[in-house]
Structure formats: structure tokens, C-alpha cells
Design goal:
Elements (H helix, E strand, L loop, with lengths): L6 H22 L1 H9 L8 H32 L3 E6 L1 H12 L8 E6 L4 H32 L4 H20 L7 H8 L1 H20 L2
Antiparallel strand pairs: 1-2
């Protein structure tokens, strides 16, 4: 089956990508929240800083999320499913409002698909997302070490550190075997496959949270 995108799906992907970028920018730039609350400017807060943070957010959490969901879709279509991403606009609003008050719970939507599936196929569709984030972590890991060894700071350092951290967190979080998360579907298919992927993913996620 050919991979296709409807106008609605492209719109949902774009809105979710932008909303997550804005949410992470609000979470990271707390002075921006103070400026919005006061209706004025905050000393030391520049448009360049905000713009850089937004770009970093779009290129890290945004891309990590987009490719995670697209990986689900690609594998689902490979198994003959009719699959499409659907944004959850209510949860996107929650993500932005939550970021404004200092916390972020991101559940921007999901790939929905229909058709007959075996437990293995369903598990492989779920596995595609976290594995994609792990692969993206490797992509960010090389420039991260270069930045680390050369002592580079600024935009590139922030981009590589955030990209590595976000993708490790996305992989680990989604491997939890609860609720609608990918880990539950993977474990329902194979506890062994789940453990092989989940254990290192969770360890790396904890490291990303407390070390990076």
C-alpha cells in the first residue's frame, strides 16, 4: 500500500509540530512568561534568544515527535493498514497552558489505523516509534561529543544536547507498558522484545534527565 497524506493529516502534523515547539519554548524561557504576564519586556530577554529556543525546540522535540509518529504510520501501511496521524487539539492546548505554568505533559495525538493485525504486527508498529527516537539519539550523539570535547557553546551545543536528551526521554517514556503507550502493545506481543528495548531505553532516559 502506498504511503499517502491527506490535507487534514498534513495540517494536524504541522499544528502539532508547531504547538510542541511553542510549548517547549515557553517551558524553557521563563522570562518570556513574565513578559507576557506583565504586558511588557523583560531586561535581558531578546527576540533572538526566544527565536533560537523556538528553532531548537522545533528541531528536537518537534522532529523527534514527527518522526516517531511517521514511523508508526510507515510500518502500519507496510502491513496493509489504512493509517493517519490525528492531532489531539485539546491536549495540545493543555501542553501550551501547562508549559506556561511550569510543567509539560505532551500527548499531541497519535497515528490511528484500521485493518486486521496480528499481535506481532501490532507490536512492531508500536516498536517503530521508540526505535526511531533511539536512532535519532545516535544522530545527535556524534555532534554532542564533538561539542563536548571542543568546549563549544551556544546554539549548536544547545541543539545537540537538547536533541539527545529529548529523543532518549521520548524513547524511554513510550516504552513504559501502561495505558496507550507503545510499551504496552509491545509487551502484549513479546515480553522479551519489550525488555530488550525497554530496559536500556529507560536507563538512558533517566541518564538524560539527570545527567545531560
Amino acid at each position: 500500500m502506498e504511503l499517502q497524506f491527506s490535507q487534514r493529516e498534513l495540517r494536524d502534523l504541522a499544528v502539532a509540530w508547531l504547538a510542541l515547539g511553542v510549548a517547549f519554548t515557553l517551558l524553557l524561557e521563563r522570562e518570556l512568561i513574565a513578559a507576557l504576564d506583565s504586558g511588557g519586556a523583560i531586561a535581558g530577554l531578546s527576540a533572538v534568544v526566544v527565536a533560537e529556543t523556538l528553532v531548537i525546540s522545533l528541531l528536537t522535540v518537534g522532529v523527534g515527535f514527527l518522526l516517531h509518529e511517521l514511523a508508526h504510520k510507515v510500518v502500519a501501511v507496510r502491513f496493509g493498514q489504512v493509517a493517519a496521524f490525528r492531532a489531539d487539539y485539546r491536549m495540545l492546548g493543555v501542553a501550551i497552558v501547562g508549559a506556561m505554568v511550569g510543567f509539560l505533559f505532551a500527548a499531541p495525538g497519535a497515528v490511528v489505523h484500521r485493518g486486521r493485525l496480528t499481535a506481532k504486527q501490532n507490536g512492531l508498529i508500536a516498536l517503530a516509534g521508540p526505535v526511531t527516537n533511539l536512532l535519532l539519539s545516535v544522530v545527535f550523539l556524534v555532534p554532542f561529543f564533538l561539542v563536548l570535547t571542543t568546549g563549544t557553546s551556544g546554539f549548536l551545543a544547545d541543539l545537540t544536547t537538547r536533541g539527545l536528551q529529548i529523543n532518549l526521554l521520548l524513547a524511554g517514556f513510550n516504552m513504559l507498558p501502561f495505558g496507550p503507550l507503545d510499551g504496552r502493545k509491545i509487551r502484549a506481543w513479546s515480553t522479551l522484545v519489550w525488555a530488550v528495548v525497554a530496559i536500556p531505553s529507560l536507563v538512558l532516559a533517566v541518564g538524560a534527565l539527570f545527567v545531560l
